[in-house]
Amino acid sequence: MQADSSWKRDAPRQAILFCLLFLCLPIYGQSLGFLAGTNASAILLDVQTGRTIATFGRTGIPSTPGSTLKPFLLLAALKEGIVTEHTTVECRGILTIDDRGHPRNLACTHPRTTTIFAAQAALAYSCNTYFARLAARMSPTQLTQSLSNFGIRTQPIDDPNQRILQALGLFSVKVSAEQLARAYALLAREFTSAHSNPANIVHQGLLDSVSFGMADNAAVPGLTLAGKTGTASDPGRPWTHGWFAGIVEDAPATVLVVYVPHGSGADAATLARTILAKRERKP
Questions:
Q1: Cα angle, residue 69 at apex, residues 67 and 71 outer, rounded to 5°
Q2: What's the pLDDT at 19?
Q3: What does pTM read for this prediction?
Q4: Which of 37, 68, 104, 143 lies 20 to 30 angstroms, CA to CA, from 77?
């Protein structure tokens, strides 16, 4: 799941990141013409109204969501008692899942300084081992319902290995940037209205993800941001793409989703930081 970080070996990704980072991206503008011909996209939504504030690129194209699905699964599992906030999993950084006869390396990319994860930290550090174990405890219907609660449709899968891949956002599920943004807007409203312990744990896990976890590239000083990265690849394609989905909690609350083809979640988080920093500087 980890993307190649070499700029020299990935010219398409380099061009996209250069455009987005250095051509003075205006956060309240229309879709940017220089993104024509690519799938790079970003969308900003108002949490309460669902109104689209700004879009960049083509935000309706579905792609494999990767780890951006983890908050929805964790919230459902906590609500249904499948796990508690204190349920721990030991992660040794190694995870291989059989994908229809082909071993798939899903080793965790978080720092090895932490090896025992409970719910909140597992989300902050996006621990694949934790969420693979979580998926194994969920029935096919429980897993798909956890996603459909937020408008993400997929089919129940009986095969346990494929169900793990589905839970990790790598198989049998695709979302567009707009769809993911609307799902995170629903999640944001859950945080403010439910005031339940499961919602609080997921909320804090996403805050921690930006503060010191796998989404820390998105952090903007002085901005309260809860977010999640994802890195995945679509079937038949050797390259990865990156996602960042974040909830900006400073009033008015907004959701920002960034999708970067030929990139990683860390790249998408970096772009999100640039977009949000420019938004904060607007008069």
A1: 100
A2: 44
A3: 0.87
A4: 104
